[in-house]
Specification:
There is one protein chain. The protein is α+β, with helices and mostly antiparallel strands. It has helices at about 5-35, 45-70, 75-100, 115-125, 125-150, 170-260, 265-295, 310-325, 345-365, 410-415, 420-430, and strands at about 305-310, 330-335, 345, 370-380, 380-390, 435-440, 445-455. Strands 2-4-5-7-6 form a five-stranded mixed β-sheet, with helices on one face. α1 (about 5-35) packs antiparallel against α2 (about 45-70), α2 packs antiparallel against α3 and α3 runs parallel beside α5 (about 125-150). The longest helix has about 90 residues, at about 170-260. The protein starts with a helix and ends in a 16-residue tail after the last strand.
């Protein structure tokens, strides 16, 4: 049987009713004590204390049964409804007995029946709630009639001038009328509110269930999409790997011929072979970028996680890119402090990311410009900045620059060659490192890529693992 949220909420409300009953039992004993010691009312304290113990006893039974049902995950709505009926009925009987031993119909606390009507309205249907209101009125009529006729002893409270007021038919009728109308009206109003709340509750539950179903569908679709994406990445990696070796061989062979190791070439032939070698080199770079991108997507580059010093990585990258920068008369600066906290990541992936950003900055910066690598600590992350004084990126093109094979129009005009995969690789690596990347750019003035990466955890001594002496 399918368990609904309504069944679960009914079970929770039953538990709430049982919890309230512990307070009621203690309340009966406490009120008895106060009435006797403070107000010196001639109530039958012995029977009242006994009733308090009886309430504790049967509530313990109800509690044990309720806990057993929860433990066995027994959630049958009809059973819990019947359970609520029994509890409320027993409570009404006990309340009637409490009134009998505490002044009967003369006791103003007779209107405490109102609380049970509200509880019934919350737990049960309107019809069932009216039934319990009728039961309460019937119990009071029975008790008052038996006291008035002398079938049971009436406990005189001494708070009324007329000691025989409980036998007065007018008083009897007025009290019963007031009690009955109060109970029935409270049931009607409470159930009206409760029904509206239940309707809203049902709508919310239906909406929640619909959202859960949609979420499951989306999760399934996402899982399938992820599998397709991984399959595409594996296929791209395999194809790239298979292509790289023969292309590299062709490029090397053409380079040998161009270098004159196979003999002098006619000028026209040398020009054609130079073009072929250049195109082959571009193709080889494309294949390498595709292979790097597919590996980054499969998180192959990011499996190893260890503290990485951005200062050390930046020095290596600057050394490797120095020749390209010098060839364009570009100033390449590294402004990363040596004591900067390390990040947590894969060293190869971090170096690949920084290399791509630096190479891009040099590529799209005119001669005489400046490329700067800087970093600083920001909360629990380290913020890397790669800035240049290059051609910049148009604002409308920034959302597209991390797409595969995409190059902004001004980038294509400035540098004809390019695969459009460098920033895609950077984005994949940053995502794999659980970081984020932002771009600030002004056309004609330059671009800054801001990469935020998680900082490596400190040991108890406060020293980063990357800086420990071995």
């Amino acid at each position: 049987m399918r368990v609904t949220l309504q069944d679960q909420e009914l079970a929770e409300r039953i538990g709430w009713l049982i919890s309230l009953r512990w307070c009621a039992a203690v309340g009966v004993a406490s009120l008895t004590t106060f009435a006797k010691l403070l107000f010196h009312l001639p109530i039958a304290e012995g029977p009242l204390y006994t009733i308090s113990l009886i309430i504790l006893g049967y509530n313990a039974v109800f509690y044990a049964l309720y806990r057993h049902w929860l433990k066995t995950q027994f959630l049958v709505s009809s059973a819990y409804v019947a359970f609520a009926h029994v509890q409320i009925a027993v409570d009404l009987v006990c309340l009637t007995l409490v009134l009998h031993f505490a002044g009967g119909i003369e006791n103003p606390l007779i209107f405490y029946f109102l609380f049970h009507m509200i509880i019934a309205s919350i737990l049960l249907s309107r019809k069932a709630s009216f039934a319990h209101a009728t039961l309460a009125v019937g119990l009071v009529i029975t008790m008052a009639s038996m006291e008035a006729t002398g079938l049971v002893r009436h406990v005189e409270l001494g708070i009324w001038r007329n000691p025989s007021l409980y036998r007065d038919p007018k008083f009897f009728a007025v009290m019963l009328f007031a009690l009955a109308t109060t109970l029935y009206l409270s049931v009607f109003m409470a159930t009206s509110i409760t029904q509206k709340l239940r309707q809203r509750e049902k709508e919310i539950i239906d909406l929640s269930e619909a959202l859960e179903a949609k979420t499951e569908q989306l999760e399934k679709a996402y899982s399938e999409l992820r599998e397709l994406e991984m399959a595409k990445s594996r296929y791209m990696r395999k194809v790239s790997h298979e292509l790289r070796s023969p292309i590299a061989a062709v490029q090397s062979s053409l380079r040998v011929v161009l270098d004159g190791l196979t003999g002098q070439l006619p000028p026209k032939a040398e020009e054609m072979i130079a073009r072929a070698e250049s195109r082959t080199w571009s193709l080889l770079k494309l294949v390498n970028d595709l292979l790097t991108l597919s590996r980054a997507r499969e998180v192959k580059l990011l499996e190893r996680r260890e503290p990485v010093s951005l200062h050390e990585v930046a020095e290596r990258v600057a050394g490797l890119q120095a020749a390209r920068a010098h060839g364009k008369n570009i100033t390449l600066q590294v402004k990363i402090p040596q004591d900067l906290p390390p990040i947590m990541g894969d060293p190869e992936a971090v170096e690949q990311m920084m290399t791509n950003l630096t190479a891009n900055a040099i590529k799209y910066t005119p001669e005489g410009g400046t490329v700067t690598l800087s970093a600083q600590k920001r909360n629990s992350t380290v913020e890397l900045r790669v800035s240049d004084t290059g051609i910049g990126i148009p604002e409308e093109e920034i959302p597209n620059i991390f797409n595969e094979f995409y190059r902004a129009p001004n980038a294509r005009e400035f540098a004809k060659e390019g695969t459009g995969l460098g920033l895609s690789i950077v984005k994949s690596i940053v995502d794999g490192l659980q970081g984020s990347i932002q771009v600030e750019s002004t056309v004609g003035k330059g671009t800054t890529f801001i990469v935020s990466l998680p900082m490596a955890h400190q040991d108890p001594a406060g020293e980063s693992p990357a800086h420990k002496e071995v």
